[in-house]
Amino acid sequence: MNDVRPGASWSGAADEFVRIDNVVKIYADVVAVKSLSLSVGRHEIFALLGSSGCGKSTLLRMLAGFEEATSGRIFLDNEEITALPPYKRPVNMMFQSYALFPHMTVEANVAFGLKQEGVPRNEIHSRVYEALDLVQMGAYARRKPAQLSGGQQQRVALARSLVKRPKLLLLDEPMSALDKQIRQKTQIELVKILDKVGVTCIMVTHDQEEAMTMAHRMAVMSEGQIVQCGTPQEVYDFPNSRFVAGFVGSTNLFSGTITVDEPDHVQIESEQLSRPLYVDHGVSEPLGMEVHVSIRPERIRVHREQPSTDVNWGHGVVSHMAWMGSYARYQIRLDSGMLVEASVPRLAMMQDDAPAVDEEVYIAWSDDSATVLPS
Amino acid sequence: MLRAPHSWRRVLTIAPPFVWLILFLLLPFLLVLKISFADLQFGVPPYTALAEFKDEALSIVLNLRGYVLLFTDSLYVATYLHSVKMAAITTVCCVLIGYPMAYYIARSEPAVRNLLLIGVILPFWTSLLLRVYAWIGILRNDGLLNNLLMAFGLIDQPLEIYRTDLAVYIGLVYAYLPFFILPLYANLVKLDTRLLEAAYDLGARPWSAFISVVLPLSMPGVIAGAMLVFIPSVGEFVIPEMLGGADTLMIGRVMWTEFFNNSDWPMAAAVTCVMVLLLLVPMVLFQYGQVRQLEMRGGRR
């Protein structure tokens, strides 16, 4: 497919540190992972994003060695690990619930992996404290996991999974057990630590914000397959399907037919809009074809005056407005009856007084705002 | 003032088990304790009263005959030691046989698990007496086991098991195994399998993961089960009486003999009191302390 959309190319990693090759996992009667291939580069933080049951956790468990692939192969640093048991893989995992050993102190938890390796006692001690200092938990070495807060437990779990210096670190929903308030701060801290250590990391999450905050690249999964793979910006700005557009961030979807098809732009006529959509990139779909167009809410401006251009605007009535703090979320019912969401930054609201509910407004967006979705 | 009705309700809720324990455990024990200080006499009851009011004088006579005899007659001391030894070996056997069983049941699929649990509980549907009789049929010189072994040509002469200590061990382990499996199962089934996965993930081979994670976390279950086996085995009467030889000394049999054969109630009572005070009370306190410590280690929030 010679797609000319930016960012639409399949982004494989440059050096293929982790290579997943046509991996399939079939449980008794359910196909959890359908022939999936993926490569992750050295030092990369890679996120598998999807809703529950999409196969992302199964894939992670196959990387850890807890599940055996029905077919396909997994390579790590040019060595096949497909059939290795978990205790023979240079892979460590931070569990969703942390799975800290409740009967051991923080220190013993972190030392556990090194003891299994037969590392000399004094080296264990120095490496344990090095790892605990990395996550700023050195002062809590003598505590039991139950005496720590959720955030502290997470740090200990991270130290425990890093202390063996694994080639690959797996994070299973790393933030799901934390309160929403400390999540964002923790995400950034975690990325800083991972970058400092330079470990290759594959994480699983259902939270698109988490994936976008933390990952260098991400793959959106659905029904055991990767739907789209790329950097968070690529996936957000140029979703390749209605599914991805709706899953990663919220969006407004218009359907219409292509009426002008030039190499550098297309024009799409939609029944939902009074004016045609003008998109400043070419598409591979032919003239007259039915397509979908995605416009993110933050790309839509709300005006009282009619825009002077011929394209990329619509007319409607404000049906709902919600203050979200830093921005306001508008719902506007177009003349066609379609509901469009627009988020207007606080700054823009301050300058001109904001349109209120039931007011007639125009929505408009720039030529580079819309993305044509092939499916 | 407002709290009064609430505290009344609380008392009412907690009261039944305490009333039960006082009526059916503490009170009988005090009666037995009283009898143990009495002297033997012919009549009904076959022991003297402790307190007597005669000629305006209240005389309380504490008769220590039973206790003196207990600690001076080597037969009683030997009986105690032998009972403890038999109970201890029974407990160890139950741990060794029961742990793998409990672990396997806890790790099975839920449907299979229930079936296996029913298998553990099923023997309780028949009386212990009948089951011990069945063991006599199996272990006798001309019993099932010996016939089978001889039919296969493994032995020429019947093995002498019935009426030996070995038969008592077999009977005790058989009878008390479920009491070990059930509490341990209840503990193991709660064990988070992710802890085991975390151990594997950190490089622990299955056996090492078991020793360092599963075993320590299951200790409260092991201790609870071991106590449920040990404490009743010490005083067990039916199994040593029916399977053991004449020289199988156990407290339960001595009590029976003193009580029914010799009609020496004070002596039987003294044997009982010493067993309770010297053996069982320390055991219960130990178990209480252990379980509490382990639960604290396990981190109750």
TrEMBL record, chain A:
Belongs to the ABC transporter superfamily. Spermidine/putrescine importer (TC 3.A.1.11.1) family. SMART domains: AAA. Part of the ABC transporter complex PotABCD involved in spermidine/putrescine import. Responsible for energy coupling to the transport system. Residues 18-248 form the ABC transporter domain. It catalyses: ATP + H2O + polyamine-[polyamine-binding protein]Side 1 = ADP + phosphate + polyamineSide 2 + [polyamine-binding protein]Side 1. GO terms for molecular function: ATP binding. It comes from Yanghanlia caeni. Its EC number is 7.6.2.11. Signal peptide: none annotated. The complex is composed of two ATP-binding proteins (PotA), two transmembrane proteins (PotB and PotC) and a solute-binding protein (PotD). Keywords: ATP-binding, Cell inner membrane, Cell membrane, Membrane, Nucleotide-binding, Translocase, Transport. Pfam families: ABC_tran (PF00005), TOBE_2 (PF08402). PROSITE patterns: ABC_TRANSPORTER_1, ABC_TRANSPORTER_2. The keyword Cell inner membrane applies. This is Spermidine/putrescine import ATP-binding protein PotA. InterPro entries: AAA+_ATPase, ABC_SmlMolc_Importer, ABC_transporter-like_ATP-bd, ABC_transporter-like_CS, Mo/tungstate-bd_C_term_dom, P-loop_NTPase, PotA-like, Transp-assoc_OB_typ2.
UniProtKB/TrEMBL annotation, chain B:
Residues 80-286 form the ABC transmembrane type-1 domain. The keyword Transmembrane applies. SUPFAM superfamilies: MetI-like. The chain crosses the membrane at residues 12-37, 86-106, 115-136, 166-186, 207-231, 265-286. It is a multi-pass membrane protein. It is found in: Cell membrane. It comes from the Bacteria. InterPro entries: MetI-like, MetI-like_sf. The keyword Cytoplasm does not apply. Pfam families: BPD_transp_1. Keywords: Cell membrane, Membrane, Transmembrane, Transmembrane helix, Transport. PROSITE patterns: ABC_TM1. Belongs to the binding-protein-dependent transport system permease family. CysTW subfamily. This is ABC transporter permease subunit. It comes from Yanghanlia caeni.
